[in-house]
What we know:
- By secondary structure, the chain is α/β, with parallel strands linked by helices.
- The protein has helices at residues 2-6, 22-33, 49-59, 72-80, 88-94, 98-108, 111-114, 117-120, 126-142, 151-164, 182-188, 217-229, 245-255, 273-280, 302-311, 329-340, 358-370, 385-398, 414-434, and strands at 170-176, 194-199, 235-237, 263-265, 292-294, 320-322, 348-350, 376-378, 404-406.
- Strand 7 (348-350), helix 17 (358-370) and strand 8 (376-378) form a beta-alpha-beta unit.
- The two termini are 49 Å apart.
Amino acid sequence: MAMHWMKRRTTNASGGGNDVNFFHTIRERERELHKPNSSVKTSYFTPSLVEICARTIAADFENQPPIEHIDSSLQQLVVSFLSTNLPIQVAVPRVESQDYWKACCEARWSLGKLGDSKITSKEEGGWKRVYLERNLEEFLEALEDEYPDGVDSKIQLPKLAELSAPWVYKLCVGRLKCHISLPDFFDWLPKLSSFKVSYGVLTTGMNFEFRLFGIRQADCLGFAEVLRHTKTLTSLSLPENQIDGDKLKAIITGLVRNYTITHLDLSHNKIDDGGIKALATLLIRKKQTIVSLNLADNNMRCEGAKSLGRNLKGNTTLTDLNIRLNRIGDDGGKFFLDGIKENTALQEVNMSSNDLGAEFVKTLAELLRTNTTLTKLDITANSYGEDGGKVLLDAIEQNTSLLWMDTRMSGVNEKDKQEINDALKKRANAKARAKPISAPPSAKETPKGE
């Protein structure tokens, strides 16, 4: 009955404009200002029949037939009255309104927790994507592993993933306790292009067990299987997973056959020189795709740095490398720089907190005098001292590409540090001014015939 009345148009029976009661007009304006989900009730006037029907349909939306066949403006009216607590299996297939999904997000999460969701909401999928990605992340974080409480949840996971799949492109799972089947999980989400996960728990209380923390060998083999077959995954981030050399080698068996990954994050793990050497072999293969590599805070030492630098010699794709907090030492830093002297791709390198000294700075100065691609370099928290600062200042004057360098907490005196910063800032500003500004679309010449 309600759906039948929604198809009818209502007319204003109040007569001409001169006959409209001014007080009534004010109330009508007041009514328009009320938000759809507001608990504030309108006063004075009686809702129109159209509105009554819309509210009736919205209140029993689960049991109503699809509303696609009614007028679009009336569809929007129904959606405006929908509860943000609709079962997800009802809302996902039937509601496309971005305003509705934005309201769902704001009702469930605070603005702080939504973070950069406003950026994501402008991408494909909009607010519906934001909601479904966040919802799936929280569901995964709530899963228990090898406990009775998790049995039902594991059965529900495939259903939720299948329901959300068309809108899930990126997942960031803060702490995953359940060791799910990764090949199956990625099969359920064919559009997933970015995945970040850390295995473990935030709090254990008196129930501490080592098995609660870190990735397992089976998980690594699962990632290898995913990497061998994926056609969509471009970014993989596995920080804080206690990955050692052996576990990394298991993942590499998949990486060696992968040509989609462009961003790889293995920071805050336990990867030793053996694991670094195995990973470095990927950097010399044909059809290399990795653009950004993060190896911060691992167990890399001199030999690992030497191998990494040697294999980067002919690499033409990696532009961003982070190896901070690894203690590669003065010799390791020197060997690494020797290896990348002929590299023409690296643009950003972070080597902070690596116990680098005088020999490293001398080699770096030689590199800067000839390098034309490096634009950003972080060498903070090392020990090359005041003499090292003067050597760097001289090298920067002969360099043409470097735009930013951080030398704090390394013994460089304040005067030299300031001169280095001023020189780089001046160069960066000059390049920014020299960069051509493209004309806005409106200023471009309109093709003839349009």
